[in-house]
Amino acid sequence: xxxxxxxxxxxxxxxxxxxxxxxxxxxxxxxxxxxxxxxxxxxxxxxxxxxxxxxxxxxxxxxxxxxxxxxxxxxxxxxxxxxxxxxxxxxxxxxxxxxxxxxxxxxxxxxxxxxxxxxxxxxxxxxxxxxxxxxxxxxxxxxxxxxxxxxxxxxxxxxxxxxxxxxxxxxxxxxxxxxxxxxxxxxxxxxxxxxxxxxxxxxxxxxxxxxxxxxxxxxxxxxxxxxxxxxxxxxxxxxxxxxxxxxxxxxxxxxxxxxxxxxxxxxxxxxxxxxxxxxxxxxxxxxxxxxxxxxxxxxxxxxxxxxxxxxxxxxxxxxxxxxxxxxxxxxxxxxxxxxxxxxxxxxxxxxxxxxxxxxxxxxxxxxxxxxxxxxxxxxxxxxxxxxxxxxxxxxxxxxxxxxxxxxxx
Amino acid sequence: xxxxxxxxxxxxxxxxxxxxxxxxxxxxxxxxxxxxxxxxxxxxxxxxxxxxxxxxxxxxxxxxxxxxxxxxxxxxxxxxxxxxxxxxxxxxxxxxxxxxxxxxxxxxxxxxxxxxxxxxxxxxxxxxxxxxxxxxxxxxxxxxxxxxxxxxxxxxxxxxxxxxxxxxxxxxxxxxxxxxxxxxxxxxxxxxxxxxxxxxxxxxxxxxxxxxxxxxxxxxxxxxxxxxxxxxxxxxxxxxxxxxxxxxxxxxxxxxxxxxxxxxxxxxxxxxxxxxxxxxxxxxxxxxxxxxxxxxxxxxxxxxxxxxxxxxxxxxxxxxxxxxxxxxxxxxxxxxxxxxxxxxxxxxxxxxxxxxxxxxxxxxxxxxxxxxxxxxxxxxxxxxxxxxxxxxxxxxxxxxxxxxxxxxxxxxxxxxxxxxxxxxxxxxxxxxxxxxxxxxxxxxxxxxxxxxxxxxxxxxxxxxxxxxxxxxxxxxxxxxxxxxxxxxxxxxxxxxxxxxxxxxxxxxxxxxxxxxxxxxxxxxxxxxxxxxxxxxxxxxxxxxxxxxxxxxxxxxxxxxxxxxxxxxxxxxxxxxxxxxxxxxx
Lengths: 409, 585
Known about the structure:
- The complex is a heterodimer of chains A (409) and B (585).
- Chain A is of the alpha/beta class.
- Chain A has helices spanning 11-22, 36-39, 60-69, 128-136, 139-144, 166-172, 176-191, 213-220, 234-249, 358-361, 393-408, and strands spanning 3-7, 26-30, 43-44, 72-73, 87-90, 96-99, 101-103, 115-120, 147-152, 199-202, 224-226, 253-255, 259-264, 270-274, 279-282, 284-287, 297-299, 318-320, 328-330, 333-334, 363-364, 379-381.
- In chain A, strands 12-2-1-16-22 form a 5-stranded parallel beta sheet, covered by helices on one side.
- Chain A starts with a strand and ends with a helix.
- In chain B, the strands form 3 sheets. In chain B, strands 4, 5, 6, 7, 12, 13, 14, 15, 16 and 17 form a 10-stranded mixed beta sheet that branches. In chain B, strands 1, 2, 3, 8, 9, 10, 11, 18 and 19 form a 9-stranded mixed beta sheet that branches. Chain B has a two-stranded antiparallel sheet with strand order 20-21.
- In chain B, helix 9 (438-445) crosses helix 10.
- The longest helix of chain B has 20 residues, at 538-557.
- The termini of chain B are far apart.
- Residues 1-23 of chain B have low confidence and may be disordered.
- At the A-B interface, strand 6 and helix 4 of A face helix 7, helix 14, helix 15 and helix 16 of B.
């Protein structure tokens, strides 16, 4: 039985741990701090959606992980890849945009035809009238003949909810009674309408423990779902719950400890040293510590703009925060020491000065198996830590699966 | 044309020196019928342009103002945010210091809500000359004290090292002692906006986002005075507009030579030396007092608590780039941070949330270092160039905008409105008649004290108009920008009453999106409101939000450290997901 340590608990680490456990490995997962997955919004992209390259369907192994998480809606359930159109989501910024798949609480507009109801009520983050207008003006909506109409519906129940963030209200809808109350208000609103809409688009309010969109849909009799919100919405919290359930079901050992160092001893065993002073011995290690958002990579040129006046030494502009035998590359080239003691100016490698910027590419170089290039056997990397990959949810999932399966065999 | 270096501000009728006399095409005659006729056309919506427009409108003249971008888009909205008394002129030209202090006092009277006291400490490093410098500065500020009461400034205090350690514990190093002096902070963008709003309320027409394309000569009637036709284009609607005016004022700051050339006048007649200055903004007040110190090259730089943030500034470098897109560079940020950190090292741990940059239209001189250039101002009368009634305002600084505007207006009124007098130092700016008590408003209208305080700061008594909106439509109480904070009613007020036409314009008027979150939580919502109020396609509101967020990221990245890089990565990911960086799907 292979012993696998997975460092990081975002989607890449979770996928690696679950995939390795399907190959009967003994897996230990080290919980990380909230990173890109927890701050994500519930749209599952493989490449940034604007580039349009979403056509490749989700493969069988990745699909198995999504099934284990039991929190995501896939446009096509049979997994054969045919008729896999992806989903269409409405963002609270006013955009209607495609995605490969999504959090199950979100409303997929792709198969809609007719009028989508946008409830109008007194909440500062949700102006139903303007949102309906803005979505209706989106190119997708005009091309597909889908319209958005707002209508009054009293969806806040207590006065404090006017000032409550979405995620807190979402938690209230985990209560069955409260969810029925919401269904009743929506039913009332529907009765007042001359014509029945094709779906109801709601704020990101539908549960934390689990997505409540299906239950609400069943009670109202119409597809109900959330619009896509930004960082800090309930979707990241739903991921954490789904992850904890799936890891528990797979009997994966989870440690709330931070890995400081991973090194391979002369006996060929990997030793992962932890912040608590303990260490774990394993046959392979999967690094899924995240990119800049998750803290696996740190932007730290010797003299970053606000840092010390005279840095002790020049050094590359970024480093991996976990001490392991990895080298950072970008566009297949090692990241070199800049020719300025103060580090290279951020204007030369950061968006929006540079469209496809160095910081977007930077990371650990891996082989197709997920094995870290140039490292001793048994060291793998996945997710946003990996160089030259799109910084997306599904890419992290698929990379995690590959690394997990390789680590277990 | 570097006259006025030492306070001889008017250059009247003097022909250009031979070396500058170059062949230029003469101003062409434009005989097409105009869309509108007015007495005075003012080109430029900074503090000077809007100040002149207000002054002349108050004297009963009909005024049309053109601004290519937004009010306070240039130096006015990107200054150090101070109405200072001009201590730097104390030795060379004390009359300038006196008039600066006097005018600071006037501005406090006409816009009391918009000014806030910033007491400054100037610590002096211990060293062989430490004691001597202390005596010199003490004597210097004793002389400044004569003028301080004019601007309600307190007399200076001499501090010993223990006083400084107690007052401002963040200051480190070996200090010989220091001085205090009193200055006043102001929001320069709002100052320009209030002048333009008041001008409009007194009959002036204000065209924003409207570029003047050409200034031509109107066909001269027999024996009549000269008149001019300005051809302008609204850059959003692309509508062309032609306005006939007897007098044309070029108040376009760093753009002045370009504007002169549009009228067939030689740019060398309104020559300025464009000087770029940048500031770095931190997310909170880092110090109790403003701190003056020296940069590595000996220039004076400062750290000031400014409203709910801190600002460090400023640089002064010759600038030859694109005036429509001036941004700070990481090198300039390093220069300032290094200088401040020498005496106030905690600045390195602070969180920079943005930078801003502007170009000062300093009077031209070949030879002096940028810092030694005059901040004085001059009116150029283009009669000498064969264009009577055309004037260019060059030089100047935020603190003297009212005085400069008065000088310009007095000159114009001599011909067009004889017998009228300037009243801009007496009549309050909009909202400046009375400053409501923020805490009472907060209690009456169920606002948080911070919301109320910020609202009163920006709007004075006109906060009442925004509160009335909220009473009519309670949904407008919603907070759009939580950092500042700005409520929906204020956003709509900025569009309806203060001529904002984009997310950027709303930000300039309300500081929406300029706080710690960088607009991530409010830009899209603001774009929706702008589109709704102006009846633009909603997609346009989204595009405006996208442009605003991209521009803000550009100003932040130059001050990027490890923690900021993490936030930038998240901000970009979120923007890609919610708005896209390129446009509609």
